[in-house]
Amino acid sequence: DGGITQSPKYLFRKEGQNVTLSCEQNLNHDAMYWYRQDPGQGLRLIYYSQIVNDFQKGDIAEGYSVSREKKESFPLTVTSAQKNPTAFYLCASSSLLGTVSNQPQHFGDGTRLSIL
Amino acid sequence: AQKVTQAQTEISVVEKEDVTLDCVYETRDTTYYLFWYKQPPSGELVFLIRRNSFDEQNEISGRYSWNFQKSTSSFNFTITASQVVDSAVYFCALYTGGGNKLTFGTGTQLKVEL
Lengths: 116, 114
Prior knowledge:
Chain A has no helices and eleven strands. Chain A is an all-beta fold. In chain A, strands 2, 4, 5, 6, 9, 10 and 11 form a seven-stranded mixed sheet that branches. In chain A, strands 1-3-8-7 form a four-stranded antiparallel sheet, with no helix packed on it. By secondary structure, chain B is mainly β. Chain B is 0% helix and 53% strand. Chain B has strands at residues 3-5, 10-14, 19-21, 24-26, 33-39, 46-52, 59-61, 64-69, 74-79, 88-95, 102-104, 108-113.
């Protein structure tokens, strides 16, 4: 079945360590996104990519980095510069085909990141 | 700037009650899209509905219905005869402009008890 796979489901980071969250989609979607969710808050956009080898910062990009070397994959690295990384991270994808650039975004099951 | 307000942080109802989740949005754009998503305890977001700014028709899908009123900038969601499986966090979201960027509200936690 088509969908978005995020791994791992749970991740622990030590102080000063970079960690990478995986996001893979087999929906043939052009656009991919990373959101951060904190308790009692909505989702905030970290980075998004509309095409391979191109990506843009979202609202809270500081302390994060991404790459988009393949259409199917959009990994997110949480760097040591991100001082408060504990959160739930959601990856999403959507199609940019046609005139419906507002396609509902499909979401993965999320990765919960905690500090050791 | 875009903004979505979900003033209800948490709602508790007894099964079979009707419940309405409120969503108020702000935008200066004349073309925009509104969404509702459900986030069950498992964490993933499930798309429920999309509505564009030119279509103010209310929509019903089974026990779910949506009331879009541009005059009050609201897009409320009603669940009729609620069930325990409806327990989740519900997010309202607004899309305007390029980049497919959604602005989310803070969510409403719905608890349906027996």
